[in-house]
Amino acid sequence: MRLSLLLLLTLALGACQGSGELGLVAVEARALDWMRAAKPQLNPAVIIELEEVTEAEARSMGLRVFRSVGSFAEGQGWVLDGEELVPIGNCFGGHGLLSVLGADLDGDGVQELLYTASWGSGIHRSEVGVYLPRRGNNGARGGRDLGAADASWRNGDWVLARGNGGTVKLVDVEWGWEYGSYTGGQVIGELRWEGQAGGLGERGAGLPPGLSPDPVSGLGLALGLVLDPGLSPATRGQLWRPGE
After folding, report:
1. pTM (2 d.p.)
2. Is residue 75 a contact partner of residue 53, using CB atoms and an 8 Å limit?
3. Hey, is 62 helix, strand or coil?
4. How far is CA 51 from CA 25, 27, 67, 175, 235, in A?
5. Which of 24, 195, 214, 220 is buried most deeply by CB count within 10 Å?
6. Nearest to 168 by CA among 104, 221, 229
7. Helix (H), strand (E), coil (C) string for 146-205
8. Mean pLDDT computed over 70-78
9. b or e along 172-209 (b: 16 or more beta carbons within 10 Å of the residue's beta carbon)?
10. pLDDT tops 80 at residue 4
11. Domain ranges of the chain
């Protein structure tokens, strides 16, 4: 009887943390459910292990952020937005989720969650993407991963960093395999909002053809990048854009 009570208590603690907050075990179960729905042929023996990497800024947006740490889909990023768990970024062949940062680049008064992730077993690349939270975005506008911008940083890993005056910078680093563990830090440039269409491109050079405006949210991935003037031509060449 005592053993049964202890088991029930353990399960309860795994399912909830604090006041009504989902525990890690429950979040892992939701991630596995999502994977099984997306991949019906998934091996029944597969399990998903997560670590929580939520920082105060994401929590203030009503979000919790997780990263897969097990042997399956290692590095995959996840956002828990209310009761819904949404995957963000790509991880196949790379490090997966590298960084997240809240910013209101489009100036609508509501912060978006920017993220970077790396993937690619052939050509390693890092991408920057946008997640639109439910909070502050009514109805179907929120709770959606808008995906990654078209351009990517080849053969390198970039993370988001806060610059002066609330600006957002992309910084090239040496990744240390654990979330938040990296060395170095060469500023690539500053992210800017360029309008309602297109993809990540060097400001002033013309944006490459990219994603059209999102029909629900009205938020396209029109991110421009003001490159740091100190970058060498070789380093600038790591910024790959469609058609190049």
Report:
1. 0.81
2. no
3. coil
4. 10, 10, 5, 18, 33
5. 220
6. 104
7. EEECCCEEECCEEEEEECHHHCEEEEEEEECCCCCCEEEEEEEEEEEECCCCECCEECCC
8. 87
9. bbebeeebeebeeeebbbbbebbeeebbbbbeeeebbe
10. no
11. 17-240
Q: How far apart are CA 137 and CA 117, in angstroms?
A: 24
- Using alpha carbons, select from 56, 86, 52 the residue that is nearest to residue 66: 52
Give the CA-trace dihedral at 87, 126, 55, 30, to 10 degrees. Answer: 10
Alpha-carbon span 194 to 159, nearest angstrom: 20
Residue 201 clears pLDDT 70, i.e. is over it: no
d(CA 149, CA 200): 6
**Amino acid found at 56:** A
DSSP conformational letter for 79: E
Is pLDDT above 60 for 110? yes
Strands 112-119, 144-148: pairing is unpaired
